[in-house]
Structure formats: structure tokens, C-alpha cells
């Protein structure tokens, strides 16, 4: 096994490696070169701070790291199925941790599926610790009467600093405001009541995925979040998904369940604090 950072691989080579590594994953994940390129750009993935494992000069596994200030995010770890079982994840981190420390990174965060016992075991061996539980939801919104006084409109001039004050939980890295601002895949929708913004939602109309949603605490229990989700359901003829909802937010969890969105996946958020 040889180890190297990934800046010398082409986007096509990275795409093939990613898709082969996730071919048997718990949920279907498949990238095109353009989609992977957008992920790298919007999440601030740095290939010279990411790592691959190679056999006879052919890549067989990888870890992608995004960097913002002193924080790193594991944006994807994968090993091609035929090459698993060699402790590759731990060995890749043995290689890349000194590089991350030298770059000033003091912590790394990631999400891992609850059933992915081998990955969790590897991460804990490296030193990652569980921080909290994240719930992922999917389904079609049950049709219900929407408050006719609520108007939902797409907006382009979004004051996220103001809207973030309404959060019940902080979105994970790939759904963060920093990521959304750099992504071309998401649209922002605001709900208006009496001509004032009372809630908002960020969603991908190509996949039905909701990245963020929140309602002004002063306007809750008036059907605003329901109106936002119903608006997305009207635009996207398929199942909606909302990933990485904080598992310690019963108000949000019960709201989604009551709208016929079902929890289909549980993840752990884990963090590694790097010592000098």
C-alpha cells in the first residue's frame, strides 16, 4: 500500500474511485464528474489535504477533507470493496494527520451511519468520539390545508445572518450556509405573513432535498413550515428528504413525522480533536 494526497488525480479518476467505493453502500450514492466537482467547490474540499491509498499506482480508497479556518470535515471516506479489510482508513489517517496539523487544523468532524460498525470502529480507533445523533427523513408530504395568508416565494437576496437566529439546530457541513452560498444546486424560499418573512427553506429542486428550514419562534404553530414543505412538494414530484436533523430536537422530529416524513437513517456526528 502506498499513500498520497489527491491533487494529482483528475476529476474523472476521483469520480470513478468514489463510485466504486460506494457501490455497496447503505444508501445509493453516485456522482458524475460535474456533481463531484460542485461538491468539492461548495464544501471547500482541498485535495492536497485529502488522502488516497494506492496499490500498484492504482487508487483503491480515499478520504476527502474540507477545510474552513482551523476546522476540517471528512466529506467522504471509501475503499473499493475488493480492497477492504486492511485497516486502510486508519492507515490513511496516519498519513494525513501530520499534514492537517501542519496546516493549522485543530479538529475534524464527520458523520457516519449508525449501522456502519466497521467504520465506527475505525474512527474510534483513530480517536474520534461521538458528539450527537442525527436523523434523516424521507417521504411525501401528506396533503393538508395550508394557511391561505402565508405566501411562499423564491428569493435571491437572502439575509442568512438574520434567518440563522431562528435555527433549532445548526446544519451539518454539507448543508451549512457556507456550502449553500457556493452551490448552484439550491434555491431559497421564504414564507411571508402580513408581508413579513416568518420562515424559510433551502432546497434542491432536482432531488427534493431540504438543506435548511426554520420558522421565526414568534410565528410558530401557524402552518408556516407546513406551507414551505407543501410548496416544495408542489414543485418536486417525488419523495422529499431532510438529512441530519439533530436527534435532540423533539419539536422538529415530531413535526416531520406528523407530516408523513419517515426516519430512514440514523447517523452519528463524531469529532476528533488534534493535539500538537
Automatic annotation (TrEMBL):
InterPro entries: Acyl_CoA_acyltransferase, GNAT_dom, MshD_Acetyltransferase
Alphabetized SUPFAM superfamilies for the sequence: Acyl-CoA N-acyltransferases (Nat)
Gene3D superfamilies: 3.40.630.30
Name of this protein: GNAT family N-acetyltransferase
One matching Pfam family: Acetyltransf_1
Example GO molecular function: acyltransferase activity, transferring groups other than amino-acyl groups
Superkingdom of this protein's organism: Bacteria
N-acetyltransferase domain span: 1-151, 150-275
Amino acid at each position: 500500500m502506498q499513500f498520497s494526497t489527491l491533487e494529482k488525480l483528475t476529476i474523472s479518476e476521483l469520480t470513478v474511485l468514489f463510485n466504486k467505493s460506494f457501490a455497496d453502500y447503505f444508501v445509493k450514492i453516485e456522482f458524475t464528474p460535474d456533481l463531484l466537482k460542485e461538491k468539492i467547490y461548495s464544501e471547500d474540499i482541498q485535495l492536497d489535504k485529502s488522502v488516497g491509498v494506492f496499490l500498484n499506482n492504482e487508487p483503491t480508497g480515499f478520504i476527502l477533507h474540507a477545510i474552513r479556518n482551523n476546522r476540517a470535515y471528512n466529506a467522504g471516506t471509501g475503499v473499493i470493496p475488493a480492497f477492504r479489510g486492511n485497516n486502510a482508513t486508519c492507515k490513511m489517517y496516519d498519513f494525513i494527520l501530520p499534514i492537517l496539523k501542519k496546516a493549522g487544523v485543530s479538529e475534524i468532524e464527520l458523520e457516519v451511519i449508525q449501522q456502519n460498525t466497521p467504520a465506527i470502529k475505525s474512527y474510534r480507533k483513530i480517536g474520534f468520539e461521538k458528539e450527537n445523533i442525527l436523523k434523516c427523513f424521507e417521504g411525501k408530504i401528506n396533503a393538508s390545508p395550508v394557511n391561505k395568508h402565508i405566501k411562499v416565494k423564491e428569493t435571491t437576496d437572502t439575509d442568512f445572518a438574520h434567518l440563522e437566529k431562528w435555527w433549532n439546530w445548526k446544519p451539518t457541513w454539507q448543508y451549512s450556509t457556507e456550502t449553500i452560498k457556493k452551490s448552484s444546486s439550491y434555491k431559497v424560499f421564504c414564507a411571508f405573513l402580513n408581508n413579513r418573512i416568518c420562515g424559510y427553506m433551502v432546497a434542491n429542486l432536482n432531488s427534493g432535498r431540504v438543506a435548511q428550514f426554520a420558522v421565526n419562534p414568534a410565528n410558530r404553530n401557524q402552518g408556516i413550515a407546513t406551507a414551505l414543505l407543501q410548496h416544495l412538494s408542489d414543485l418536486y414530484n417525488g419523495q422529499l428528504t431532510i438529512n441530519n436533523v439533530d436527534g435532540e430536537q423533539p419539536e422538529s422530529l415530531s413535526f416531520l413525522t406528523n407530516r408523513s416524513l419517515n426516519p430512514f437513517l440514523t447517523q452519528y456526528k463524531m469529532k476528533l480533536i488534534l493535539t500538537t
